TrEMBL record, chain B:
Keywords: ATP-binding, Nucleotide-binding, Transport. This is ABC-type quaternary amine transporter. Its EC number is 7.6.2.9. The keyword ATP-binding applies. The keyword Nucleotide-binding applies. GO terms for molecular function: ABC-type quaternary ammonium compound transporting activity; ATP binding; ATP hydrolysis activity. Belongs to the ABC transporter superfamily. Residues 2-236 form the ABC transporter domain.
Length: 451, 311
C-alpha cells in the first residue's frame, strides 16, 4: 500500500476538489438553516405554545438517523447535492432554532419591559436589544449546527453529493486506509477550523458579522459564476462509476476511448458515485450520461419480469439489452469479455484440507462460519435462495461489509464468504473461488449503459 | 394632571386593585407607598400602559391613555426601573441615549444632551460615556437610569422602586438628587416605594395603598399627623419624624384645655421644631393646638418622653 504522503501527492487535485465541494455543501446548508431557523425563532418567541411545539418537532427530526433522512428523501428529490443539502438543513435547524429561541426568550424580562417602556419600535427593540443580548446563544447554536453539518455532510457521498465523505466511503469499500484517513481528518479539521472561526466572529460586532457573511456569499457566488463563464462551453459527457477500483478503471477506459475518438468532447468522471439504484436514477434523470452496469444486476434488480436468468452469458446479455430498451429506452452497449459475478470464496488452505471444489461441497460443513454482504444476505434471490438450491445450512452466518469479509476469511474468523469474482483481494489473501456447479448465480458481464 | 378613575385590576388568582381613584397634579412629586403586593406598581404601570386596568380609566390631562398612540405616549414618559435595568450590551452613552436614538435625534445632539444630564447627576461625561454597565456601581447605574429617563425631556417620569436595592448612603444621595432634579424641571414625578421614610422625604403628596385599596392621600405631614386608620398609623409608626408632630404632643396628655389664654395657634401637622422656633424668639410664648394650650415647660417634658422610645 502507498504511504499517505504519496497518496496525497497523487490525489491532491481531487482531494482539494472534494474539500471545496464539502465546504460549499456545508456553507449552503448552514446559510439556509440560518435563514429558516432564526426568523422562525423570532416569529415564535412571543407564542410560547407554538415555540415549544416547533422545538419538539426539530428535536424529533434530530433523532432520525441522517442516513434514514437521506433514504426517505430519494423518492422525492432524487440524488445528488439537493437532497444532501435538505437533509443537512433538517439536521442543523434544531441547534440553531433551539439556541435562538432560548436566547431570545431568556432575556431578563426587566430589560424587555424597559425597552417597551421607552416606546421602542418593534424592529428597534429586536435589533438593538433582543438580538445583541441573545447573540452569544445564537452564535453558539450556529457553531454547533455548523460542526454537525460538516460531520454529517460526509454522508452526502452516499447519494452522489460528493465531498470528503467520498474518501471515507472509498476507504471503507476498497479497504484503503489512506483514503479513509484523508476523508476523516480533513472533515474533522474543517469542523474544528469553522468552529474556531465562528468563535472569533462572535467577538466582532453583529453588523460586521452580517456584512462579512453577505460579502462571503457574494464573493463565492461571483467566483463560481466567473469560473463557469471562463470555461468554454463544450460538449460534456459525464461518466459515473459505482464504488470500488474496478468501475474506476472501466470509466477511465471509457474516457480514453471517447477522447481518442473526439478530443473536443469534455469527459467528466464521477468515480465512487454510489450504489446501483443511485446510479440508475442519476442516469434516468440525466445527471450522468454513461455508467458501467452488469447483466446480472440489470436482470435481477433493474428490469421487471426476469426472475429466472439464463445461465448463458450471451443470451443473458441479449435479454438484458432488450428489456432495458423496452422498459427504460436505454442502450446497453456490447459487453466486455470478462465477468464480475458473485462467487463463494474460501481460503485456499481450507479448500485443500477439505477438498472443496463446488458450492455443493459446502453442504457437509455446517460448522463453517459464514459472512455475507448485507444485500446478498437479505435479497430473496440472494442467500435464502442459495440455501434452498444447494441445501446449505451454516450454523453461524453474519453480515459484513464487502471489503471486511476478505480480511475475516484470511484471518480465519470465518471460513465461507460471498465474493466478487474479479476482486483483487482473492489472490492477495490466497483465497479460492468455488464453482457454481448448479448455475445459481446469473452471468455478470459488464457493459456501458446509457439513454 | 394624571387621573385614576375607579381602577380595578383583577388577576386570575387575585384582586390587585379595587375601585381605586386618585389624582396626581402636574409638576408635583407624587409618591405611591405601601407594602409589597399592595398594587402600587401595577397602578404606576397603568400610566404608560405596561398594565391595563380590568375596569376604570387612566387619563393624562383629561385624555384617556387608551386613546393615545402607544409609542408616542411612552416616548413622552420617562421610566426608571428597579436596579437600573441598563442594557448590558450598550455603553452608558448608548443606554442613556436610547430614547433619543429611537426618536432619530442627530448624534451630536444626543451626545450633548446626555453629557449635560450626566454632569447634572454627578457623573463626569468624559469618564462615564464609554463605560459598560457592568463597570458601574449600583448607585452609578441608577444615576444613568435616571439620565435615560430624563433624556427626552418627558412630561412625566415614573420611578418604580428605584433605590430599593441600593446601600443607605447611595439611597440618601440619590433621593437628594431626584428632589433637586424635580425642583429644576417642570416634570411630574410619580414614585413607587415600600419605604415610608423615603415617601415622607420625597413626596409633595403621597397615597398609601394597601391590598389594592387607597388608604389615605395627602401631604406627608397631613398623613403623619392624622392617619385615617390603624393600617396607616402602624405603617408610619416607626417614622421618627412622626413624634415631632404637635398632634403627638397633644396625644401624650400634655397641655390644658383652652381657657381664654392668649396663645399662638399652630396646626397638628406643625412640628416641635416650629414650637422650638417660637420659644426661641419668645421663651414665655403659649401655643394652642386643637383647642389645647401648651406652656413652655411642656416642651422639655415632651422631649423627655421621647427618650423612652414609645409614648
Amino acid at each position: 500500500m502507498d504511504s499517505l504522503e504519496t497518496y496525497l501527492q497523487h490525489n491532491s487535485q481531487q482531494i482539494i476538489g472534494a474539500l471545496g465541494q464539502h465546504i460549499v455543501l456545508s456553507l449552503i446548508a448552514i446559510l439556509i438553516t440560518i435563514v429558516i431557523a432564526i426568523p422562525l425563532a423570532v416569529i415564535l418567541m412571543n407564542h410560547q405554545k407554538w415555540g415549544e411545539v416547533v422545538l419538539q418537532v426539530t428535536s424529533v427530526i434530530q433523532t432520525i438517523p441522517s442516513l434514514a433522512v437521506l433514504g426517505i428523501l430519494i423518492p422525492f428529490v432524487g440524488i445528488g447535492t439537493i437532497p444532501a443539502i435538505i437533509a443537512l438543513v433538517l439536521y442543523a435547524i434544531m441547534p440553531v432554532y433551539q439556541n435562538t429561541y432560548a436566547g431570545l426568550t431568556s432575556i431578563d424580562p426587566l430589560l424587555i419591559q424597559a425597552a417597551e417602556a421607552f416606546g421602542m419600535k418593534r424592529r428597534f427593540k429586536l435589533f438593538k436589544v433582543q438580538f445583541p443580548l441573545a447573540m452569544p446563544m445564537i452564535i453558539s447554536g450556529i457553531r454547533i449546527g455548523s460542526v454537525m453539518v460538516i460531520g454529517t455532510a460526509t454522508l452526502a457521498a452516499l447519494i452522489g453529493g460528493g465531498g470528503l465523505g467520498t474518501y471515507i466511503l472509498l476507504g471503507i469499500q476498497t479497504n484503503n486506509n489512506n483514503a479513509l484517513i484523508v476523508g476523516a481528518i480533513l472533515s474533522a479539521l474543517l469542523a474544528l477550523i469553522v468552529s474556531g472561526v465562528i468563535r472569533v466572529l462572535s467577538k466582532v460586532s453583529f453588523k460586521k458579522t452580517i456584512i462579512g457573511l453577505v460579502s462571503l456569499v457574494l464573493i463565492g457566488g461571483i467566483g463560481t459564476a466567473a469560473v463557469k463563464l471562463a470555461t468554454p462551453q463544450r460538449q460534456t459527457i459525464t461518466i459515473a462509476g459505482k464504488m470500488g477500483g474496478e468501475p474506476e478503471i472501466l470509466i477511465n477506459m471509457y474516457k480514453d476511448l471517447i477522447q481518442q475518438d473526439n478530443p473536443n468532447i469534455k469527459v467528466n468522471l464521477k468515480r465512487n458515485f454510489g450504489g446501483t439504484s443511485f446510479l440508475f436514477k442519476a442516469l434516468q434523470s440525466n445527471k450522468i450520461d454513461i455508467y458501467p452496469e452488469f447483466t446480472g444486476t440489470v436482470l435481477q434488480s433493474l428490469v421487471k419480469g426476469h426472475t429466472k436468468v439464463n445461465p448463458n452469458a450471451h443470451s443473458a446479455y441479449k435479454t438484458a439489452k432488450k428489456a432495458l430498451k423496452n422498459q427504460f429506452n436505454m442502450r446497453f452497449l456490447a459487453p466486455m469479455k470478462y465477468q464480475n459475478g458473485y462467487g463463494i470464496a474460501v481460503k485456499t488452505s481450507v479448500a485443500k484440507k477439505y477438498n472443496l471444489r463446488n458450492f455443493s461441497d459446502l453442504k457437509k460443513h455446517r460448522n463453517f462460519k459464514a459472512a455475507f454482504d448485507p444485500d446478498f444476505f437479505q435479497q430473496a434471490d440472494g442467500y435464502p435462495e442459495l440455501q434452498k438450491v444447494y441445501g446449505l445450512n451454516f450454523n453461524s452466518v453474519r453480515t459484513m461489509e464487502p471489503s471486511l469479509r476478505y480480511k475475516a476469511l484470511a484471518r480465519g474468523g470465518v471460513q465461507v464468504a460471498d465474493a466478487y469474482t474479479t476482486d483483487p483481494q482473492i489472490p492477495k489473501y490466497h483465497l479460492t473461488l468455488l464453482k457454481d456447479n448448479l448455475h445459481f448465480f446469473p452471468p455478470y458481464q459488464g457493459a456501458p449503459l446509457m439513454k | 394632571m394624571i387621573t385614576f378613575n375607579q381602577i380595578t385590576k383583577q388577576y386570575p388568582d387575585k384582586l390587585a386593585l379595587n375601585q381605586l381613584s386618585l389624582k396626581v397634579q402636574s409638576h408635583e412629586f407624587f409618591v405611591l407607598v405601601g407594602p409589597s403586593g399592595s398594587g402600587k406598581t401595577t397602578l404606576l404601570k397603568m400610566i404608560n400602559r405596561l398594565e391595563t386596568p380590568t375596569s376604570g380609566s387612566v387619563s393624562i390631562d383629561d385624555k384617556n391613555v387608551n386613546d393615545l398612540n402607544l409609542t408616542k405616549l411612552r416616548q413622552n414618559i420617562g421610566y426608571v426601573l428597579q436596579s437600573g435595568a441598563l442594557f448590558p450590551n450598550m455603553t452608558v452613552f448608548q443606554n442613556a441615549a436610547i430614547q433619543l436614538a429611537n426618536l432619530n435625534w442627530e448624534p451630536e445632539k444626543q451626545h450633548d444632551r446626555v453629557a449635560e444630564l450626566l454632569t447634572e447627576v454627578g457623573l463626569p461625561p468624559k469618564e462615564f460615556m464609554t463605560k459598560m454597565p457592568h463597570e458601574l456601581s449600583g448607585g452609578e447605574a441608577q444615576r444613568v437610569g435616571i439620565v435615560r429617563a430624563l433624556a427626552a425631556s418627558p412630561m412625566i417620569v415614573l420611578m418604580d422602586g428605584p433605590f430599593s436595592a441600593l446601600d443607605p448612603v447611595s439611597t440618601r444621595q440619590l433621593q437628594d438628587l431626584v428632589l433637586q432634579l424635580h425642583q429644576t424641571l417642570a416634570t411630574t414625578f410619580v414614585f413607587v416605594t415600600h419605604d415610608m421614610q423615603e415617601a415622607i422625604k420625597l413626596a409633595d403628596h403621597l397615597a398609601v395603598i394597601h391590598n389594592g385599596e387607597l388608604q389615605q392621600i395627602g401631604t406627608p405631614n397631613e398623613i403623619l399627623a392624622a392617619p385615617t386608620n390603624d393600617f396607616v398609623k402602624n405603617f408610619f409608626r416607626d417614622a421618627s419624624q412622626q413624634k415631632a408632630f404637635l398632634a403627638r404632643v397633644i396625644e401624650s396628655g400634655l397641655g390644658q384645655p383652652k381657657n381664654h389664654q392668649k396663645a399662638l395657634v399652630l396646626q397638628q401637622t406643625d412640628t416641635i421644631m416650629d414650637w422650638a422656633t417660637i420659644l426661641h424668639r419668645n421663651p414665655a410664648a403659649l401655643i394652642e393646638v386643637a383647642n389645647v394650650v401648651l406652656v413652655p415647660t411642656d416642651f422639655p417634658a415632651y422631649i423627655a418622653t421621647m427618650k423612652k422610645g414609645d409614648h
